[in-house]
Design goal:
CATH topology: Metallo-beta-lactamase, Chain A
Bound molecules: zinc ion
Oligomer: single chain
Shape: globular
Largest sheet: 7 strands, mixed
CATH class: Alpha Beta
Number of domains: 1
CATH architecture: 4-Layer Sandwich
CATH superfamily: Ribonuclease Z/Hydroxyacylglutathione hydrolase-like
Length: 250
């Protein structure tokens, strides 16, 4: 959740504050990519904060995984699954904010998929505190813990869990090493990072988390919770500045 009304802090260097609308070109609210091993990634930006919802599918096994179910995304997810005859195996919440979890219960009811989040953000799913949310946020009950070093595997989908607190206590990033992708939630954006001034936020924890991301390889593509994709290489100047100073830029 980002609330009021912006999600991320922008970096210095004259970059405009990112809010998902910082691009002068028309926004695409959906894109589809073919990945290695036949895997497919579908993205959809939705809801009042233009949250990026991701569907990852393996056409071989017809298994799929959803990342961050912003309201409204349940109908979009159901439609994309039906078009491809995919079975949703898991709903992953990168963190507990309402703009990433609002349709968890609806998607679970429609698909039977389990919900996964970090244990430190579990209570936020079970007892949503929809700060600034323009609609009610139904509770959802995670069945799967995403802990540091954990692995999610379905068919040829492989995701490794990095615990990256700072935006919330239980924020995670997911690395897909075979596909060279990082799902960064609200931890890292194109040209910025997630707010640390909301409940559970911590600038110190964010510095540590971003410093970890600085250890990743430049070609790794970054698929954030809001806004356009980027890469570790493109964010490296910002990440290295944070590593060097040991604090977030003012
Ligand atoms: Zn968000
Ligand atoms: Zn958030």
């Amino acid at each position: 959740m980002e609330g009021r009304p912006r999600d991320g802090r922008s970096a210095p260097r004259g970059l405009r504050a990112r809010d998902g609308h910082d691009d002068s070109r028309p926004r695409r609210d959906e894109y589809l990519e073919a990945l290695g091993a036949g895997m497919e990634l579908i993205q959809h930006a939705t809801g009042p904060l233009a949250t990026n919802v991701y569907l990852l599918g393996d056409p071989g096994t017809r298994e799929a995984l959803a990342i961050d179910t912003a309201i409204p995304s349940a109908a979009w997810i159901a439609e994309r699954l039906a078009q491809r005859d995919w079975t949703l195996k898991l709903i992953v919440s990168t963190h507990r904010h309402w703009d990433h979890t609002g349709d968890n219960a609806a998607v679970q009811a429609a698909t039977g998929a389990d919900i996964a989040c970090h244990p430190l953000d579990r209570d936020g799913l079970e007892h949503p505190q929809p700060l600034f949310a323009p609609f009610p946020i139904p509770p959802s009950v995670p069945a799967v813990d995403l802990a540091e070093g954990g692995v999610i595997r379905f068919g040829s989908i492989l995701l490794q869990v990095l615990h990256t607190p700072g935006h919330t206590e239980g924020s995670v990033c997911l690395v897909a090493p075979d596909d060279g992708m990082l799902f960064s939630g609200d931890t890292l954006f194109a040209g910025g990072w997630g707010r640390v001034d909301l409940p559970g936020g911590s600038a110190d924890a964010m510095v540590t988390s971003l410093s970890r991301l600085a250890l990743l390889d430049d070609p790794l593509r970054v698929l954030p919770g809001h806004g356009r994709p980027t890469s570790i290489g493109r964010e490296r100047p910002l990440l290295e500045l944070i590593v060097r100073d040991g604090r977030l830029p003012a």
